[in-house]
Amino acid sequence: MTQPPLLSLVLCLLVLAGVGSLAVASARYRQRSTPVPMAGVWRVSGWVLVALASVVAIVLQGWAMALVYLLAAATLATTSVVLVLSYRPRWLVPIVLVALPSGLLLFAGI
Amino acid sequence: MSRRRSDSRAATPAKAGFRQTMTWLHTWVGLTFIWLLFFVFVTGTAGYFDTEIDRWMQPELPPAQIGVDASDSVPVLLNHARLVAPGAEQWFLSLPVDRNQPYASLFWRGADPEQGAQQTSGNALIDLRDGAVLQARDTGGGQLLYQMHWRLHYLSRNYSDWIITLATMFMFVAIIAGVIIHKRIFRDFFTFRPGKGQRSWLDAHNLLSVAALPFHLMITYSGLLFMGFSFMPLVYSAYYGTDNGARGEFFAEVFDPPGLTAAAGEAAPLVSLALVVAEAEQHWGENRVRSLDIRHPGDANARIFVHENAEQTVANSEGLLVFDGSNGSLIHALPSATSTTKRIRDVSLGLHEGLFAAPVLRWLYFFSGVLGTGMVATGMVMWTVKRREQAVRTRVPPSAGLLLVEKLNVGTIAGLFVGIAAYFWANRLLPVDFVSRADWEAHALFLTWAAMLLHAAVRPTRQAWVEQFALGGLAFAALPVLNWLTTDRHLGQSVPAQDWVLAGFDLTVLALGLTLLVIAGYLASRLGYVNRHLPHDAAASTLGVSR
Predict the structure, then answer these.
(1) Helices H / strands E in chain B, number of each
(2) Which residues from B are below 8 Å from A81, CB to CB?
(3) Would you call B358 and A5 a contact, using CB atoms and an 8 Å cutoff?
(4) Does A34 touch chain B (CB under 8 A)?
(5) Total of domains in chain A
(6) pLDDT of residue B14
């Protein structure tokens, strides 16, 4: 049932990295920016990251609170990713590459 | 006639396929209560910061006194209760445990004037530092603003319950139909194409709806559950009968705590509350007591209902311990969940209110509420953009219905923000001893909103959008300045003192004001561009608004 602000931040970063990776793998990204090699890897990593965030949340917070946090984080992440993809598509890959290690580092620091 | 023509693309349900039927349903069910739903989403979203808004609207109050040990706060409250409410039927002692309850407070009723009570009933915030009553200006505060989202302020509950229920039901139907008609919900998941007229509005509407879909479904369905006893009375009537007392009887059985008794009429000293609190903390843990509800204090039949703080769970129900107030024995110990059905209701209502949400999650709730507001607003605008473009294309003059919707959209989407800003301005500008001060704050909101609807009706629509967004933006952005001029709780004081509740309000309204000003500026530049470069009819359709 722990819910320090840091954990919320970790979840937001991991979900952002996950949703961001899924977006990088999407057809929409190929229209908006230079396609990345190995889109399949990005897609799989995206789902793995979302799953990782879910496991972290469920283990540390219990099912009820975890679901609320995860869905709330996914809402924020999706909105941000779509706006980036529409106005600054080239920033998406760097954002994912920053969000993932900072999320993991913060998590290690908890 | 012209109206029918402008709707010709929305096929009549009888002949159309399933998806077209759903489109028709989404369009018209959505439109019916859309302006009310916009009001509900705006005031409901503000409600996630209700106690923070309360604090700003009563700048005389000290910072929240959360985290004082129950062993220190209970004696202060008890002393005050004995002083102001002797012989009362009820003392309700609230302890400041979290942001939902920032100050200790005492509510009492049935006090005895013969024993020296000045008021038979009342409510007071108590300063835990010195036991004095906290004095502050009269205001509806964040509570009234949030209450508006379902009480609709001027209406009696006989009407407001039904109106809100219908609007919520329509919303729920519109959401489900919306999901069905969104053909490319997965393929277009990450798609928003700005600058493409009607297409962009649809993309934005889809994004705002889909990104926060779990929130929209939860908030609407749980909103319905809140009203369940009003719109499904037959369920309990089947067991409790249909006569007037049945509802009260049902509520008493479900919600009244066990162990309530009448006063015995014999005096008996109240048991030491320190012992009661200590026993409760053994059940729940340190500082988990939220309130002590004492019935018939000083009577042989006194009862003490101790409520647990429920901040660690999603459900809005908490544990309850019932003590005999004369000898201190524990009579009942109720867990927070008493039945599965009630648990489902408690979890739904708890999710809706989000009282459990810590700061980060509270901001995420607020964000989802903003998306919901945007979903409703884009829906309102889309209805007109589609019909306006069609009117221009077919060279048919816009129907009265289209003009009406356009005007209502301006006066509501832009105008409501001006109204809410007026609510805060009134809080700072009305004299502190003004009669019915709190009422007039709310009147200021609704009078200003009415003025904006009127303004939208008489001004050309495109100009009205710009003017009202600009006015709302200025009114919100200037609030920190107004606060600086009228109180000493301004940013120059709150930031150095790290008083983030007050500073947070000032900064949030500043950000909102700047956002509205940016929208106004954008619309004004489009207006200028369109006037210079395009003929009038095409101009209207490009902007998505009428002249």
Answers:
(1) 23, 7
(2) 190
(3) yes
(4) no
(5) 1
(6) 55
